[in-house]
Amino acid sequence: MKRVLVVDDDPTVSEVVAGYLTRAGFTVDVAADGPSAVAGATAQPPDLVVLDLMLPGMDGLEVCRRIRQAGPLPVIMLTARGDEEDRILGLEVGADDYVTKPFSPRELVLRVESVLRRAGALMAAQGASSAPAAARELRSGPLALDPTARRATREGKELALTLREFDLLEFFLRNPGRAISREELMRRVWGWDFGDLSTVTVHVRRLREKIEDDPAGPRLISTVWGVGYRFDVPGTNGADHAA
Hints:
This protein has helices at about 10-25, 35-45, 60-70, 85-90, 105-125, 135, 165-175, 180-190, 200-210; strands at about 5, 25-30, 50, 75-80, 95-100, 140, 145, 150-155, 155-160, 180, 220-225, 230.
């Protein structure tokens, strides 16, 4: 049975989220402030943390930084403000996903299950016997990605990608030159059939900042207006580029 640590200083939110997760088959621990969350996650590491951004004693960003120092523990960030900067900061410190308050507890449960599935698939891939490196590595221009080792590089330098950024880059590399909608990316990369499409937008923006020479004028991940995005193979003539 998977364990989830719910961190929120609002007892009503904690009670509702814990109730839904328990009914979905999870074991749930609850913390009401930042220091308690760090202590709980350190003493008995959960399988996933649902973490509020605004906490007494230590904010959610600092909690996320500290608990992720011990390893790639999946984190879903909760934010009441819905501000894009909060989302970007959460993703930057290692959160795998975010949910804006008010939210549907049932949707949160689905997102927890989705993140845990991907985390489980990652662990299975890391433990599986690997094929020869040349057979499994994906390359495009300055980029190289090894799905088994979960390692991506740009011009030989390793990229510090979150779990979702890595999956997004892998999907683009496997589908070069094809216009892909945000809905398809959400379905194929996140495993969701519904949700806030700005999640995709924020992740694409963060990925551009890590792989593009000029993120404001991207030449690898182009915006296809009215559709979504396209990964253009370096050296080919794609459609017009836009940020």
